[in-house]
Every structure is written in structure tokens, then in C-alpha cells.
Write a structure and sequence with these properties.
Elements (H helix, E strand, L loop, with lengths): L3 H4 L10 E4 L6 E2 L14 E4 L5 E4 L2 E8 L2 E10 L6 E4 L12
Parallel strand pairs: 1-7, 2-6
Antiparallel strand pairs: 3-4, 5-6
């Protein structure tokens, strides 16, 4: 199994799945096609698992398909240099169920 550090060091995105990351502070994806209208004026940097800072090139809400229907994730960051869609593990809502 790959570590988060290994997953964030490449840019191939599996846009059909999302990794729940209890250490991240924002939802993030490198899949530009998920955004209907990206706010490219939002630029920043985020630190990934290996300690490296990578560029954020926009943000906006996106829709994701769940077993209970389409849900909206707000303020999702567009980070081209990660390879995994990340859902912030600190989100709350009755539509999210985490089973270990």
C-alpha cells in the first residue's frame, strides 16, 4: 500500500475515488474536469505529506456522486501536483459515513 507521501509525489489522478485524509485542512483534487467554474484568482500553497509545498491554482465547489446521490463539496482546492482526490477528514455531515 502506498503512503500518502508516495501518492502526492505523482500527478496521475484516479478521479473516481476520494481518500479521506484526517491531516488535511481542505478538500483537494488535481482533476480540473471536476470543476464547472474554477476561481483561478485563488492562489496559495499547501504542504503535502512529505513536507513539500505545492501550488494551489484555484478553488470552487464541486459535485461528487455518492451512494445516496450527488453531494457538493465546497471550497475544493485545485492542486495539479497531487495524484489523489483528498476529502478533509474533519468534515461533518449526516451524509458522510466512515467505516473502518
Amino acid at each position: 500500500m502506498a503512503t500518502l507521501e508516495q501518492m502526492c509525489n505523482t500527478v496521475e489522478v484516479n478521479n473516481s475515488s476520494w481518500l479521506i485524509d484526517s491531516g488535511c485542512t481542505n478538500h483537494m483534487t488535481a482533476d480540473l474536469s471536476l470543476f464547472k467554474d474554477l476561481d483561478k484568482s485563488y492562489v496559495s500553497k499547501v504542504r503535502i505529506g512529505n513536507g513539500e509545498y505545492v501550488k494551489v491554482e484555484g478553488k470552487r465547489a464541486i459535485e461528487v456522486e455518492t451512494m445516496s446521490g450527488t453531494k457538493t463539496l465546497k471550497n475544493v482546492l485545485y492542486v495539479p501536483k497531487i495524484n489523489q482526490n483528498l476529502v478533509c477528514g474533519t468534515i461533518t455531515g449526516i451524509w458522510l459515513l466512515i467505516i473502518f
